[in-house]
């Protein structure tokens, strides 16, 4: 199965071969101003000394190696060997005797490829950024958990989150491909991190799958500098797929950022789906579903059992039927797992409780007691594009303006909701420019980062609701020419949800506005913010935010504001919004009104 | 934060592979609710999807702690799977259904027509298979083998 027949070919021109797009993909060379540079950072990937910068030298060295030392070179670079055998019309000995390669390949036993997308998780909006990996399934289709997964990740033992983030952003880590049983990833993403997982079987032929696997073998222990924004997990999967199907040019579509959910869209569009997407709910999602079958009393008793406050016998009730009792026991067990993973439980405490719960459960003659978790209406890749351009017209206290907004990523509360997590918002690198009728265009704001994690409290989960922003923007006021100040702030409090469509919140907030032009160089403010977001339909929303704070810095100022927003999604990638704001700062007050259209890409 | 999750995942894995003192292979020392997991702090954590290592191809070089000749025998796979999925397998057995239980049936090569009976067998004998709060994966498999050996329909399955 591993050997391909060699066909004679006319092309023997080394120069032409060295610039063949397929050869360049195999070596991960990208064109630069002066020639080529490979994205591979391991010297031992290249047979030629300057192979990293010279595809032609690498090609020549590979051909020499195949002719001189075939079993070593062919077994290390099987795709190169097969491709060159075809192009040169030569039969290179050695490919049949690659014992390690065969063993590895036969163990994986590839038949189909599934794209795996762990989506965002509760209370961590940064996880909306997502992750992608591949799963290689053998024939038969039964064994998802024991199939092998291919994952590209940064190698690190760093435990400090900030250092890890900084190094990951700047390419200071090496990334490598790893192969592991899929269940390991399910346990990690579904249970440890509480991320729902979406699985998309890709439309790759067996031949394409084989070629991709053989190229992966060529990349064993090969390092690529890992850059969180562009040369990341998703980017490297795209480069694998380009080898699987050489006609694909997936990596060219990206210049500044490679966002995993964008790559999912792209892969589904250009490679195609072989089957309907599968949804694998996270532990927290399963808990939420299970809790909907129980009443508050059963839930609190289950939690009490997990906290060792009640015995397991007190959970079940002979007056209830087997189905109800089984449900309470299973919910308690899942809750035990959730808290054990989240808070770091011990075997000595959790083991006995788990054992009692399951022993009791086994005695009830019922099978599946909860049914399938509901699949979200919109899969994450069907959400709006992550970048946004917005054009609006409005007025600030009577002065008209037009505003142009650009945002690199990702989603705010008025953007079309389908595919995104309720109450979660992230802005990375946003820019707003305003042109007032009586003046020149000016920078209105520059957002570095803004995160809202308005996670609602439920009978089982009580997450913190929080907000954070780092930006430069005009000092709030009626004067369009207020100075640009550094504006850093955050809020902490609680959110709640009514039905599935109304989210409301209350936070304590703190903010720092700093600029040399300010009386004391800065204002610090403390106050509260309250608001509500009503998802009227899947495609339209209304939002109201009320704030009251006190500003300190020279004078003490009282600030009150009410901001209203309404939006409607016209298509998946076009929306409109109307915002109205009223602010009062001591004796001054001002209004702002704006109508804007947004396009997502 | 993702880093801590990774470290925790690695501890979960490694705790199972530490005691491979059984001929069935690796992961057999794991107990139910064995893994120590860190707290996932609710801080801004730009995840870079890191890994604590063992991001190698592992399989052919036996670095996953299994048989040293490079191949993973089916009994080693059983040990690994059970060891790393103690909780979900236990839940599935107590219910008599579920993906982890189906996977065990697949690894044991139980014929399609025998699957339903296999699931019922495990549920009916749950307390014998998951025999105590600190039962190890190796013991679970040994107990399961014993239960199957005593059953007319399943004693022919060599594990």
Keywords:
heterodimer, A: 601 residues, alpha+beta, 4 domains, 15 helices, B: 159 residues, mainly alpha, 1% strand, globular, disordered N terminus
What would you say this structure looks like, in words?
The complex is a heterodimer of chains A (601) and B (159). Chain A has a twelve-stranded antiparallel β-barrel. Chain A is α+β, with helices and mostly antiparallel strands and 601 residues long. Chain A is 28% helix and 35% strand. Chain A has helices at residues 14-18, 21-27, 55-68, 70-76, 78-88, 99-108, 161-169, 182-192, 206-218, 233-244, 260-270, 283-291, 296-306, 322-343, 347-362, and strands spanning 29-31, 36-38, 112-121, 133-137, 148-155, 173-181, 195-201, 224-226, 278-280, 388-396, 399-411, 424-436, 441-453, 456-457, 465-474, 484-498, 502-514, 522-537, 540-553, 555-569, 574-585, 588-600. Chain A folds into four domains: 14-97, no CATH class; 108-280, no CATH class; 294-362, no CATH class; 383-600, Beta Barrel (Porin), CATH 2.40.160. By secondary structure, chain B is mostly helical. Chain B has one domain (2-149). The model of chain B is unreliable at 3-25, 36-55 and 59-65 (pLDDT under 50). Chains A and B meet through helix 6, strand 5, helix 7, strand 6 and helix 8 of A and helix 1, strand 1, helix 2, helix 3 and helix 4 of B.
Question: What's a quick, concise take on this entry?
Answer:
The complex is a heterodimer of chains A (601) and B (159). Helices cover 28% and strands 35% of the residues of chain A.
Write the layout of secondary structure elements.
The complex is a heterodimer of chains A (601) and B (159).
Chain A: H1 14-18, H2 21-27, E1 29-31, E2 36-38, H3 55-68, H4 70-76, H5 78-88, H6 99-108, E3 112-121, E4 133-137, E5 148-155, H7 161-169, E6 173-181, H8 182-192, E7 195-201, H9 206-218, E8 224-226, H10 233-244, H11 260-270, E9 278-280, H12 283-291, H13 296-306, H14 322-343, H15 347-362, E10 388-396, E11 399-411, E12 424-436, E13 441-453, E14 456-457, E15 465-474, E16 484-498, E17 502-514, E18 522-537, E19 540-553, E20 555-569, E21 574-585, E22 588-600
Parallel strand pairs in A: 14-16
Antiparallel strand pairs in A: 1-2, 3-4, 3-7, 4-5, 5-6, 6-8, 7-9, 10-11, 10-22, 11-12, 12-13, 13-15, 15-16, 16-17, 17-18, 18-19, 19-20, 20-21, 21-22
Helix pairs in contact in A: 3-4, 4-5, 9-10, 10-11, 12-14, 13-14, 14-15
Chain B: H1 2-17, E1 50-51, H2 74-84, H3 86-95, H4 99-107, H5 112-124, H6 126-129, H7 137-149
Helix pairs in contact in B: 2-7, 3-4, 3-5
């Amino acid at each position: 199965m591993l050997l391909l027949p060699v066909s004679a070919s006319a092309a023997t021109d080394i120069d032409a071969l060295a610039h063949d797009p397929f050869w360049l993909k195999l070596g991960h060379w990208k064109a630069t101003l002066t020639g080529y540079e490979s994205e591979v950072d391991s010297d031992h990937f290249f047979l030629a000394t300057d192979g990293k910068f010279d595809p032609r030298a690498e090609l020549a060295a590979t051909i020499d190696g195949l002719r001189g030392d075939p079993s070593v070179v062919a077994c290390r670079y099987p795709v190169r060997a097969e491709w060159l055998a075809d192009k040169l019309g030569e039969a290179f000995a050695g490919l049949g005797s690659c014992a390690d390669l065969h063993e590895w390949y036969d163990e994986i036993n590839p038949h189909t490829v599934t794209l795996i997308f762990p989506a965002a998780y509760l209370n961590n909006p940064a996880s909306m950024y997502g992750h992608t990996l591949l799963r290689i399934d053998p024939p038969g289709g039964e064994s998802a958990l024991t199939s092998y997964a291919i994952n590209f990740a940064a190698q690190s033992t760093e435990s400090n989150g900030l250092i890890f983030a900084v190094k990951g952003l700047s390419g200071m880590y090496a990334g490598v491909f790893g192969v592991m049983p899929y269940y390991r990833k399910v346990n990690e993403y579904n249970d440890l991190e509480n991320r729902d997982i979406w699985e998309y079987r890709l439309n790759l032929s067996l031949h394409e799958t084989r070629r991709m696997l053989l190229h992966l073998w060529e990349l064993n222990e090969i390092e690529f500098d890992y850059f969180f924004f562009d040369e990341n997990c998703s980017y490297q999967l795209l480069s694998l797929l380009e080898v699987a199907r050489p006609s694909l040019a997936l990596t060219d579509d990206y210049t500044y950022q490679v966002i995993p959910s964008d790559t999912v869209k792209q892969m589904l569009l250009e490679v195609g789906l072989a089957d309907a997407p599968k949804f694998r709910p996270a532990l927290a999602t399963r808990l939420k579903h299970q809790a909907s079958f129980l009443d508050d009393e059963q839930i609190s008793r289950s939690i009490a059992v997990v906290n060792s406050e009640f015995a397991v016998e007190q959970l079940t009730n002979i007056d209830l039927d087997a189905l109800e009792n089984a449900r309470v026991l299973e919910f308690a067990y899942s809750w035990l797992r959730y808290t054990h993973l989240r808070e770091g439980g011990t075997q000595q405490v959790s083991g006995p409780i788990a054992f009692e719960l399951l022993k009791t459960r086994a005695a009830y003659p019922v099978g599946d007691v909860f049914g399938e978790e509901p699949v979200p209406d919109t899969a994450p890749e069907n959400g709006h594009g992550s970048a946004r351009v917005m054009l609006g017209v409005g007025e600030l206290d009577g002065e008209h303006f037009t505003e142009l907004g650009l945002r690199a990523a990702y989603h705010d509360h008025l953007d079309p909701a389908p595919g995104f997590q309720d109450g979660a918002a992230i802005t990375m690198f946003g820019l707003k420019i305003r042109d007032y009728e009586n003046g020149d265009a000016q920078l209105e704001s520059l957002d570095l980062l803004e995160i809202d994690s308005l996670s609602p409290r439920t009978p089982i989960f009580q997450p913190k609701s929080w907000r954070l922003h780092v930006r430069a923007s005009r000092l709030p006021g009626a004067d369009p020419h207020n100075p640009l100040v550094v504006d850093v702030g955050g809020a902490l409090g609680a959110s709640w949800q009514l039905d599935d469509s109304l989210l409301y919140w209350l936070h304590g907030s703190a903010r720092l506005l700093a600029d040399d032009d300010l009386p004391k160089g800065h204002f610090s403010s403390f106050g509260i913010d309250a608001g509500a977001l009503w998802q009227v339909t899947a495609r339209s929303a209304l939002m109201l935010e009320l704030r009251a704070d006190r500003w300190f810095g020279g004078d003490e100022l009282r600030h009150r504001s009410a901001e209203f927003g309404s939006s409607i999604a016209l298509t998946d990638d076009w929306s409109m919004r109307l915002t109205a704001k009223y602010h009062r700062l001591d004796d001054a007050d001002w209004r702002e009104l704006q109508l804007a259209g947004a396009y997502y890409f | 934060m993702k880093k801590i999750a990774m470290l925790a995942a690695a501890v979960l894995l490694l705790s199972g592979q530490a005691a491979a003192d059984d001929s069935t292979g690796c992961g057999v020392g794991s107990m139910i609710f064995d893994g120590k997991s860190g707290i996932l702090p609710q801080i801004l954590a730009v995840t870079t999807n890191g890994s604590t290592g063992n991001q190698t191809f592992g399989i052919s070089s036996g670095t996953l702690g299994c048989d040293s000749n490079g191949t993973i025998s089916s009994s080693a796979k059983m040990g690994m799977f059970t060891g790393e999925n103690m909780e979900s397998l236990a839940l599935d057995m107590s219910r008599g259904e579920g993906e982890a239980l189906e996977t065990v049936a697949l690894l044991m090569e139980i014929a399609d027509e025998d699957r339903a009976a296999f699931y019922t067998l495990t549920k009916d004998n749950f307390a014998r298979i998951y025999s105590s709060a600190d039962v190890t994966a190796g013991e679970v498999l040994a107990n399961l083998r014993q239960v199957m050996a005593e059953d007319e329909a399943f004693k022919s399955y060599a594990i």
